Target: ATP-binding cassette domain-containing protein
Amino acid sequence: MRAAVSDLPLALDDVSLTSGATTILDRISLTIGPGAPTFVVGPNGSGKTSLLRLCMGLLAPSRGIVTWGGRTESGPGRRAILFQKPVMLRRSAAANIAYGLGHAGCPRGDRARRTQELLDSVGLGALAARPARRLSGGEQQRLALARALARQPEILLLDEPTASLDPAATRFVEEIILAAARSGTKIVMASHDLGQVRRLAGDVVFLVRGSLVEHVEADAFLDRPATPQAAAFVRGDLVF
Ligand SMILES: Nc1ncnc2c1ncn2[C@@H]1O[C@H](COP(=O)(O)OP(=O)(O)OP(=O)(O)O)[C@@H](O)[C@H]1O
Model:
């Protein structure tokens, strides 16, 4: 199922995104390589979702270029993206996964077995027949992760996947994300949650009002922020 070419490194070179007179992202240069999860962090409206959409190839920059493994083509490649509120098909949990597998080119004869494996891997093996839309928020997020992982992405972009989950559900989702990272999937994840940054992140991309303020190791960001904005954000002060 995997293509031979790599989408890594994912690089933004002097990238801006504008809409009319509004600058959403302002001249960002950034290289994301393989390894531990990269976290995109910043206040509301700082451009995290827009950056993830650019990284997926869902948006084209207004200026600059985005490259995947040195290539500018923005086809679906080896990437998957998961939004905060996943959209489930009006079918069973299993059918949602099977649909993802079909899209990924999984042979029909292998789909039932792979579906069960993926459901088991996110703790939903017993809920295969449950209509997906009747699952709890945390279960739906786990199902969405399994559906995204069905495509065996090289890069998995996650937009605040635990934002509306309680601590137990958050922990479950974090474990799935870590397992994916350990098995070689590059995670690029937007989050507001500094505890989550400490638990999961390798490096941090810190945005304020569409500008890249810091791109550093997570420990450095949390313990030795180099800019006043990052220091204020880490302290929990309001950053505009
Ligand atoms: N198509 C668009 N047209 C105009 N402005 C937009 C568009 N998309 C996003 N914006 C604006 O760009 C800014 C960044 O939005 P974005 O959703 O990327 O930020 P975010 O950091 O993900 O925010 P949040 O943390 O609230 O989800 C916001 O002020 C938003 O209103």
Summary: The domain at 10-85+154-235 is CATH 3.40.50.300 (Rossmann fold). The first strand starts at residue 10 and ends at 19. The pocket of adenosine-5'-triphosphate is lined by residues 19, 22, 24, 42, 44-50 (CB under 6 Å).
